[in-house]
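Q: Please design a sequence for this.
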């Protein structure tokens, strides 16, 4: 779903010093020397808006998608090893989640994850919606347990700084408040050589965010060329 993909982008933003999610517009955007191709994300947004308009689609249905494989320093998933190892629940939402992960990979957003290591590393990506929560997570295996611990500590500090910075902004929009809530629910953990970045939102709260963002996206797509969207 759109919010799941937005959550992933927020996690990537955290890894690249919490860069804000860019508004769809120009074809590329540089984020801390990471060149992002936004065309796959724009195409995904158009696709998901059409799918979400179906009255028979239950956006609150439970599902889980797990992708495992290798990610290179360039931030691209290795097509030879990357596999969806677990898919359960709503087939419609599974398809949307897979499409979103592929769009993020094609856009280059995972570059910020790849740069956590200087060589190809095993990665596990999970997106899930159950009866109580909406979850998104990255799990990356580092070279040593020490590097996993220091990476976790750095990510936790960045999340705290990002939340503090957002809260101190004036005239916060609803999107700003949503971003703060997302950042407050980002948790960095480590176990052995693995470091995990997890985001968990209560399902009811996540569903409200989803509906707001879908309305915004639909309105944006219907606006005349050159018009400036209102700040939400």
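A: Design:
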């Amino acid at each position: 779903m759109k919010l799941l993909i937005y959550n992933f982008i927020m996690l990537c933003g955290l890894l690249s010093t919490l860069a804000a999610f860019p508004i769809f517009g120009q074809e590329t955007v540089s984020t801390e020397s990471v060149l992002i191709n936004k065309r796959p994300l724009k195409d995904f947004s158009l696709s998901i808006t059409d799918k979400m308009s179906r009255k028979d689609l239950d956006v609150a249905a439970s599902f889980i998608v797990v992708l495992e494989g290798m990610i290179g320093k360039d931030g691209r998933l290795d097509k030879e090893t990357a596999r969806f190892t677990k898919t359960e629940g709503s087939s419609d939402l599974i398809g949307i989640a897979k499409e979103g992960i592929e769009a993020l990979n094609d856009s280059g957003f995972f570059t910020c994850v790849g740069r956590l290591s200087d060589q190809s590393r095993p990665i596990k990506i999970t997106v899930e919606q159950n009866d109580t929560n909406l979850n998104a997570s990255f799990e990356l295996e580092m070279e040593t347990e020490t590097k996993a611990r220091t990476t976790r500590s750095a990510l936790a500090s960045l999340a705290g700084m990002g939340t503090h910075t957002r809260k101190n902004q004036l005239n916060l929009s609803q999107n700003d408040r949503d971003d703060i809530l997302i950042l407050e629910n980002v948790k960095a953990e480590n176990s052995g050589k693995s470091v995990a970045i997890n985001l968990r939102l209560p399902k009811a709260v996540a569903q409200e965010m989803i509906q707001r963002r879908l309305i915004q996206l639909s309105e944006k797509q219907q606006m005349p060329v050159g018009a400036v969207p209102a700040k939400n």
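Q: Thanks. Anything notable?
A: Residues 23 and 32 are 17 Å apart (CA to CA). The chain is about 45% helix and 25% strand.
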